[in-house]
Amino acid sequence: MNGEEITRLVEMLNQVINVGKLPEGTPQEIARHPAVQQFVGQVRTLQEFLLALANGNLQPELHLGGRMAGALKTMQSNLRHLTWQAQRVAGGDLNQRVEFMGEFATAFNAMIEQIRLARQELARGTEELGQQRQAAVTALQEAQTAWEETHQANQQLQEANLKLQAANQKLQEYNRQLQTQLAEIRSLQEQLREQAIRDSLTGCFNRRYLEETMEREFARAVREGYTVGVVMVDIDRFKAINDTFGHAVGDRIVMELGHSLQSLSRTGDIVCRYGGEEFLLLLPGLTAEVAVERAEQWRAAFAALELPTTGRKIRLTISLGVAIYPIDSEDSQEILRKADQALYLAKSNGRNRVELSSASRREIKKQKKPGLFRR
Fold first, then answer.
1. Does residue 360 contact residue 369 with C-beta atoms inside 8 Å?
2. Are 12 and 22 spatial neighbours (Cβ–Cβ below 8 Å)?
3. Taking Cα atoms as reference points, which of 66, 20, 8 lies closest to residue 44?
């Protein structure tokens, strides 16, 4: 028999095993051979027997010999016995044990043991449930007695509750009055706080607020890495104006300057009346160039003001000194002194002008911006 014939024979056997019949095209001399027909019949019988077992039908009889048929008959017998034992377990007999079928027997016996333990637990639970039921009956009787006592107490409580509601209404009224008073107190506290940190004439922050705030602003500038412009402002020839036109006019000029400085300042800028006709401004985040430009805006805006009084017009000017933290100094008092020196230089150079401190001026020259102060 050559290789091709062997291959065809194997394919034929696989066809018989898989579907229980010879493949199409099998030669007649092979298909009609008694041994082949017997083999096909035995395979079909085994398939039908296995299919019946797979579907749960344990009744068919296998009339074949050989080792495979014997093994299948043994498996059928074991399944029949196992079914009988399962029926016994379902009927309440938990003494069944399977001594065959290997791991399946172990699992079956473990299941029987779990059922037995569960039955014992159920019996204990039933007994405990009976005890709990009796306890519940007793508790119910006690609760009935307690309810009657509670009903009587509830009537007393309702009477007390009516009195409490009346008292609560009075308390709510007192609370509303208290909230109103607290709101008034908070408003007064806020007014007092504003009065404590604001100059009453100009509305600008006062010197006390400046002293409290300046160190905080400088510390923030160090943390966040930016400079702070410090601008000292003074009204030119203010004493002569006071002597000539009186203190009422002087106060009005100071007030106008405060309003002008505030109106041209950013939200984060701090405008303080430093004393008399002198103001100080902290400008967070501004470089020397921008701080000088802002100071020049204030100077020009105030110079454009004309305050008529007693038939005469007063020409108003201011001088401004600018220092930059921390370029000029990292000390708060020293930076004020630098701004004051720059203000003095503005006064000395003819008033109505802006001067920058020497250290900041040198810094700008390093940056090659010599024309910044030409007007």
1. no
2. yes
3. 20
Q: Rounded to whole angstroms, how far apart are CA atoms 220 and 214?
A: 10
Residue with tokens 């600018």: 322
* Burial of residue 205 (number of CB atoms within 10 Å: 0-12, 13-18, 19+): buried
pTM, rounded to two decimals: 0.52
Per-residue pLDDT of 246-266, as tens digits, reads: 899 999 999 999 999 999 999
Nearest to 235 by CA among 330, 343, 309, 115: 343
Q: Measured between alpha carbons, how far is 19 from 43 in angstroms, rounded to an integer?
A: 9
What is d(CA 44, CA 62) in angstroms, rounded to the nearest whole number? Answer: 12
Residue 41 to residue 245: CA distance in whole angstroms: 138
Write out 179-216 in H/E/C secondary structure.
HHHHHHHHHHHHHHHHHHHECCCCCCECHHHHHHHHHH
Q: Are 116 and 92 in contact (CB under 8 A)?
A: no
Chain position carrying tokens 């509830």: 154
Task: List the one residue out of 354, 314, 321 whose CA is nearest residue 340.
Answer: 321
CATH of 207-373, one of 1.10.10.10, 1.20.1600.10, 3.30.70.270, 3.60.20.10: 3.30.70.270
Treating both helix axes as pointing N-terminal to C-terminal, what angle do 358-366 and 288-303 enclose, rounded to 10 degrees? 120
Q: List the structure tokens of 65.
A: 């010999």
Active-site pick, 48, 113, 217, 277: 277
Is residue 277 among the annotated active site residues?
Answer: yes
Measured distance CA(228)–CA(339) in Å, rounded: 12
> What are the C-alpha distances in Å from 226 to residues 238, 287, 367?
35, 8, 17
Question: CA–CA separation, 214 vs 288, rounded Å?
Answer: 18
pLDDT, tens digit, for every residue of 263-318? Answer: 999 999 999 999 999 999 999 999 999 999 999 999 999 999 877 665 677 889 99
Which amino acid is located at 369 in the chain?
K
Task: List the chain domain ranges.
Answer: 3-90, 207-373
Q: Greatest CA separation found in the chain?
A: 149
